Amino acid sequence: MDLGERALDAEEVEGTLQKLTSAFTIPIPSRWALLNESRVFWDVALSLARLPGLASQPRGAGDPVLVLPGFSAGDGSTAALRLFLRLLGHDARGWGLGTNGGDVSALLPRAIAETERCATSTGARVRLIGWSLGGYLAREVARDRPDLVERVVTLGSPVVGGPKYTTAARTFRMRGIDLDALEAEVAEREKTPLRVPVTAIYSKRDGVVAWQACIDRCNPDVEHIEVFSSHVGLGFHAEVYALIAQRLAATPAAAAA
């Protein structure tokens, strides 16, 4: 969505968020939508059938890529994606922080440290890929340390409301977490605009994260791409893999065109 060439200032961001809040309520995916997650097996089968096309995607040049997993997942969940990227010539790495437990305030400093370590060891700015909550963390790393990050790609990541509009909302409430307060904290951080290009890949068939929560209406340099996939399938989807390869190979100017 085009919001102009300049970044929004704090007042404009706050005004936009207030209008959005009053304009609609984002629904949490229903139990019926959650059943759609069973199509992950179809997504994997489709990816296997499209392997020849994936092999012809743009190649990397050893550039560092850090892949952040979703809530309750670890590096094992992103192994297939990282293998694909390494086969294309990228220096794709797991985040090395174990299972993503969902505590953003504790994880963000550690994710920044891992990104800084990766940038220092390679001498290059890092490409961040984040799946679900991992994508939110990737954005926040880029927000706090744009000097370390070349670009961000998110997969089904809730950028509005934190976990409030996801099927994980009940889990967070059971932990005693105030989701309304957490949503306000997420909105407060939007007053600092993102300064690196972001590609947000999402699916309206997502049974875990409400697709509306994946749409960034505050930052102008965000490209939204809809795919046909379950939430779990995003990490194994042939079209998603092709999009990631193309965005990682593109210069910021070319990707925005």
Strand order of the largest sheet: 2-1-3-4-5-6
Radius of gyration: 17 Å
Estimated structural class? alpha/beta
CATH topology: Rossmann fold
Total DSSP helices:
11
Would you identify the regions where 5 or more consecutive residues have pLDDT less than 50? 1-5, 253-257
What sort of overall outline do the alpha carbons produce when their principal axes are compared?
Answer: globular
Total strand segments: 6
Taken in chain order, the helices and strands follow as HHHHEHEHEHEHHEEHH
Share of residues in strands: 5-15%
Determine the N-to-C terminus distance.
13 Å
Top CATH class: Alpha Beta
The assigned CATH architecture is: 3-Layer(aba) Sandwich
Mean pLDDT: 87
User: How many domains is the backbone divided into?
Assistant: 1
Question: How helical, in percent, are the residues?
Answer: 40-55%
User: Describe the biggest sheet?
Assistant: 6 strands, parallel
CATH homologous superfamily assignment: Alpha/Beta hydrolase fold, catalytic domain
Description:
- By secondary structure, the protein is an alpha/beta fold.
- The chain contains eleven helices and six strands.
- Helix 6 packs across helix 7.
- The longest helix has 19 residues, at 104-122.
- The model is unreliable at 1-5 and 253-257 (pLDDT under 50).
